[in-house]
Design brief:
- The protein is α/β, with parallel strands linked by helices.
- It folds into two domains: 3-214 and 392-410, Rossmann fold, CATH 3.40.50; 227-390, Rossmann fold (3-Layer(aba) Sandwich).
- The protein is 41% helix and 20% strand.
- The strands form three sheets. It has an eight-stranded mixed beta sheet, sandwiched between helices.
């Protein structure tokens, strides 16, 4: 089959009628979804919105940190979110999840108590799609395991979206397990070429892997000028160096460093947004130049980004492409990150700073910037320019194209062709 024919066939797929698209039901399995705050949560929300507007039937099955046991929320006539109470019992046990490059803390009992309810509710959710072609998009590795089991119970297309780095396993046993897991997916989305190479070494064909980029609503996340006016409305010192943290409040994100920096740098004003296990710690703080804003709406979040001078990512392990980078750049806010994972590649010198996770180096750099903001205004302009060029909503089209090709291949028309950024 010639290239010209394939290109014409792709155009026919993308020009499918609304009636055809409404026969496609997408079930997203995810560990979190807004109003819970986090990179995966925001990604799933934005992907859901894009595809729902294109006529997809949407179901999200997720856990929640809210005080609920179970709840079903309707976001539209064909868009619902099933939420289960997150369970985290017992003491965590550190183990090496060898498909990844970092050590995760896993509680075996907690894993099964979280795994089984989500599996059962996911099984119920996919039954809704009896009259539609169903695709399951699993976020994170344990949601991927659920998707693999669901495919055994009820044959359907499943894809895996990675939000971390996939490394080639050194152990033969783990390689066998990884092959079983990843070979079962009809398509895999990864954030880096390194992850793609690791999957290829496991035998995953090139056309079954796509490298994707994050995106954000650039019309919502945008610069606000003059910043001092908006800061006054929020009772934030107008002339201070305003530093923002957005993300989960967990030790691996390095949030304890923020507290120590706030104590030693009274001339810097720290804003903290997010939730998680350390939430009560931040609520109880009484530091004049540190404000914990909790979990905020998307509109409020865009304002906080725009009025800040710097967005910080003090992670200590495992970061790849945090969603916060894209949102911050879109608002014209430079980034200060640790030299963890892929952050040095993501944060170039034209849009931010990268330093080791070291209290003294962070304190010295922030103290220096607070005394002379120097290149921050020019850096801010470059941030916005990079966001518009690389991280607009156009990036979501990759997922739409792959899903429609899966639908088309299921009908026996053509095989999947490789589609990726990078």
């Amino acid at each position: 089959m010639g290239l010209f024919h394939l290109q014409n066939r792709e155009n026919q797929i993308l020009e499918a009628s609304a009636e055809t698209r409404q026969s496609l039901h997408l079930t997203i399995l995810t560990p979190g979804f807004p109003p819970d705050i986090g990179g995966i949560e925001t990604f799933c929300k934005e992907l859901s919105e894009v595809l729902y507007e294109k006529g997809y039937l949407m179901t999200v099955v997720t856990y929640s940190y809210q005080r609920i046991i179970y709840r079903s929320d309707a976001y539209g006539s064909n868009f619902r979110v099933l939420r289960l109470k997150s369970i985290r019992p017992g003491i965590n046990v550190p183990i090496q999840l060898a498909t990844y490059s970092t050590v995760f803390r896993v509680n075996p009992l907690g894993f099964f108590l979280r795994f089984i309810p989500l599996f059962l509710f996911s099984l119920i959710a996919v039954e809704r799609s009896e009259k539609a072609f169903n695709i399951i998009d699993a976020q994170e590795i344990w949601c991927g395991l659920i998707a693999r089991l669901l495919k055994i119970v009820k044959p359907q297309k499943i894809v895996y979206t990675s939000h971390d780095t996939i490394s080639y396993p050194k152990s033969l046993l783990v390689r066998v397990i990884a092959k079983w897991l990843f070979w079962g997916f009809d398509h895999i989305f990864v954030l880096s070429q390194k992850s793609k190479v690791a999957l290829q070494r496991l035998g995953i064909p090139n056309e079954g892997i796509s490298v994707y980029r994050h995106w954000t609503h650039t019309n919502l996340f945008k610069p606000l000028e003059p910043k001092i006016v908006y800061r006054q409305l929020l009772a934030i010192p107008g002339n201070s160096l305003v530093v923002l943290y957005v993300g989960r409040l967990v030790p691996e994100k390095g949030v304890e460093l923020i507290i120590e920096l706030a104590k030693s740098l009274p001339e810097v004003f720290f804003l903290v947004i997010g939730g998680g296990p350390l939430e009560e710690t931040f609520k109880s703080l009484r530091i004049a130049n540190l404000r914990y804003a909790g979990q905020v709406t998307e509109n409020e979040l865009a304002v906080y980004y725009a009025i800040s001078d710097l967005c910080i990512i003090p992670s200590v392990k495992g970061e790849v492409w945090p969603k916060v980078i894209v949102e911050s750049l879109s608002c014209g806010t430079p980034i200060l990150g640790s030299d963890d994972g892929f952050l040095p590649e993501a944060i170039t010198s034209e849009v931010g700073f990268v330093v080791p996770y070291d209290y003294y180096q962070w304190r010295n750099l922030l103290s220096k910037i607070s005394k002379n903001k120097g290149d921050l205004p020019e850096m801010s302009k470059k941030c916005r320019k990079v966001a518009l060029e690389k991280f607009s909503e156009r990036n979501a089209e990759l997922f739409h194209k792959v899903f429609l090709r899966l639908l088309d291949s299921a009908m026996g028309s053509i095989a999947l062709e490789d589609s990726e950024y990078g």
